Amino acid sequence: MDFRISEEHEMIRKMARDFANNEILPNCQKWDEEHIFPWDAVNKLQETGLLTCGVPAEYGGPGIDHLGQAIIAEELCRGDAGLGTTMAASTLLGPDPVYIAASDEQKKWWYGKQMEGVLSAFCLTEPGAGSDAGGLATRCVKDGNDYVLNGTKQFISNGGVAGLYTVFATLDKKLGYKGMCSFMVDRNTPGISISPPENKLGIRSSNTTQVIFEDVRVPAKNLLGKEGDGFKIAMKTLDISRAVVGAMATGVAQGAFECAVQYAKERQQFGKPIASFQAIQFILADMALMCETARLLYQKAASNQDQGLPYTKEASLAKYWGGEAAMKVSTDAVQVYGGYGYTKDYLVEKYFRDAKIFQIFEGTAQVQKLVIAGDVLKA
Ligand SMILES: Cc1cc2nc3c(=O)[nH]c(=O)nc-3n(C[C@H](O)[C@H](O)[C@H](O)COP(=O)(O)OP(=O)(O)OC[C@H]3O[C@@H](n4cnc5c(N)ncnc54)[C@H](O)[C@@H]3O)c2cc1C
Q: Residue 159 CA: which ligand 1 atom is closest?
């Protein structure tokens, strides 16, 4: 067993880390404070190819494997988890239903737009259906060569900035999971509107809105898979993307950890750097442990995906533990900074606010435990 990552993955990491150091970290506090969606940085990310890292090579993309995608997500979120969320939602979560279930012709259409710089979003959650995604109420009714969509999607990352959506709807709620369908939808289709962006605790540079469908006619050729495949496609999408969310959370933990180490060496109290106190050293040691274990878990889950090995439990372990690590490490980083950590002058308070989302989206911490327990009991 070799725990080192390949030279190619190291190069990908370096590229994403350099982008975070040069383009993200100098600007992210302003984006957060002023609630800015950073189009300049998003466009630069597109130019580097990092924004389309999930587009397969046969459709003109960089064709980076799952491990590489997760490493990019970690490094971008070490800079700013808001921009990392924009990237992950656009190139991974939004397109994953296409990756899983689309025909060649559908992929050409979708990936072609992504390569032109069009952002995408994944529309599953509804006001009445969060953890219970199978209980969604958005309707799709076949009418001639179209399906007509009606319903409201809640908390959609990139909802207001995407040009492409993957949307989940039901033929009939009474059919339960078996009634769910998945569609590729062009944002310019008449009948689609969006709410103003949510005013969030963290990841404030990401755009989160409702997406509302009122008599939206989607061509039947945009159905992914068959009628009734929607639930399977949604669950498989979340399985794939949870390794990446574990990686994103690891990036937040790592960013807060690096700040804490540096500050502990610089800050003097009682005539010495606070890093010389064992109480602080133990905090830093615990942080190192959380970052390292979170990284190993997401790398294992992503590698399993690349090697065709089972990854459902592994992805939930990575997502769950990444969220715990991000929360614990960022909370302790504020502690290491003392009163200064409680101000907006230092990045650690932003890491602390950004961290919380990783225990909520793409399945809450409790839902991850349900998935893990289900797998353990099945075995
Ligand atoms: C910033 C942000 C971005 C998001 N981006 C997207 C996106 O791009 N696309 C998308 O489709 N969705 C997105 N979401 C939605 C997100 O995935 C949901 O918020 C999440 O799945 C939880 O659903 P909920 O908020 O309705 O909470 P609920 O499901 O109402 O849960 C409330 C509480 O009950 C607990 N709970 C629920 N059911 C159970 C159970 N069976 N057992 C134990 N505990 C349970 C939960 O763990 C939680 O603590 C986003 C959310 C946010 C906040």
A: 8
Would you state the structure tokens that stand for residue 368, as one six-digit string? 């991850």
- What pLDDT, in 10s, does the model give residues 241-289? 999 999 999 999 999 999 999 999 999 999 999 999 999 999 999 999 9
pLDDT, residue 379, reads 75
pLDDT band for position 361 (50/70/90)?
Answer: very high
Domain covering 232-378: architecture: Up-down Bundle (1.20)
Q: With b meaning 16 or more CB within 10 Å and e meaning fewer, what string describes 1-35?
A: eeeebeeebeebbebbbebbeebbeebbbebbeee
- What distance in angstroms lies between residue 125's CA and the mean position of ligand 1's atoms? 8
Q: Is the CB of 155 under 6 A from ligand 1?
A: yes
Give the residue extent of every domain in the chain.
7-115, 120-227, 232-378
For the Cβ of 222 lying below 6 angstroms from any atom of ligand 1, the answer is no
Predicted confidence (pLDDT) at residue 298 exceeds the cutoff of 90 = yes
Domain 120-227 belongs to what topology?
Butyryl-CoA Dehydrogenase, subunit A; domain 2 (2.40.110)
pLDDT tens across 108-131, in order? 999 999 999 999 999 999 999 999
Reduced to 3 states (helix: H, G, I; strand: E, B; else coil), residue 3 is coil
Predicted confidence at residue 2, as pLDDT, reads 84
Out of 1.10.540.10, 3.40.50.720, 3.30.565.10, 3.40.50.300, which CATH number does the structure's domain 7-115 have? 1.10.540.10
Atom 41, ligand 1: residue with shortest CA distance: 367
What is the C-alpha end-to-end distance of the chain, expressed in Å? 24
